[in-house]
Amino acid sequence: MKIGIIDLCKQIEDPRMNRKKVHKMETIIYISIAAVICGAQSWNEIEEFGNAKIAFFKSRIPDLEFIPSHDTFNRFFSIIKPEYFELIFRNWVKQVCQEVKGVVAIDGKLMRGPSQCDGEHTTGKEGFKLWMVSAWSAANGISLGQVKVDDKSNEITAVPLLINSLELSGCIVTIDAMGCQKDITQTIIERDANYIIAIKENKKKNYQLAKQIIDDYWDRDEIINRVTRHVSENTGHGRVEKRTCTVVSYGSIMEKMFKKKLVGLKSIVGIKSERTIVSTGEYTQEVRYYVTSLDNTKPEEIASAIRQHWSIENNLHWQLDVTFREDYSKKVKNAARNFSTATKMALTILKNDKTTKGSMNLKRLKAGWDENYLSQLLQENNF
Length: 383
Description:
By secondary structure, this protein is α+β, with helices and mostly antiparallel strands. The chain is 41% helix and 19% strand.
């Protein structure tokens, strides 16, 4: 039995004083998510949307007499602990996903709007930068959770916190070069998952070692037992693209080769991307290197997982920036973090709706126009 958003909200502590509670916590959250689905971005817009749809909300929220003011929305999302609201989100995601399998991509994103200077939040002061690290299930097409990077810390310390909060058994966790750390790899292995992590030149010794291991096999037609290869080629948009994935595995000895800095390391991966423009014959080539806890028995699966990692950029970060205009938000601190979580809820609801074809913008417009469609999105089995 799935739990609705209203019931989930009732499970957490309301931070407001009883004498100041005019509207229930679940009422404020419910109206906010509905408004964000339909395009609202500010507290004023949420209030105006609620007033425009007052009959709609009265028919669904018992004892609702009037819509909270924009100041009420602002105050509520500013005082509620983001950890509480994030817990609502994660519990709700478990209801939506049931089970997470396949690739879980982890990546950080700076919320540029909340990170702009103003009189209160200036460069160097606490709360100036709002950097969030998110986990994305490529198979489910859903954000699994997020963690704020502390002012006096960085993504390296935030990633293990996020990983430990998720059910990742059997998954492949993909991370960019920030994940090439002992603590991060150890946390992933302890969660009964595997990893594929990019390795860049700023990690000079590890990068050179990985490059040396892979480069010996690029041009060899003969592949020995510890090396496997997968080649894919496609044509489109006036170009031909060829991708060669080479996986070299020495098993557990790999950990010693990298001086035990990467727990569970078994293989090195090289991805060679070759592109030819059909009309001009222009040719370009790029080579990227990765470390992984997977062996070399399934190079096609590894190549696919690496490509799926980019879905967090295309399907989460891009949508947040372009469709929901997150970078233009002027909210700060708790309000910015909590509104980001509400936005991810709205995005997930819209992405999981299969009844309306078309862009995310079209779905948001339709939800604002058609109350039956909005009701369909907000019904209990979608929460």
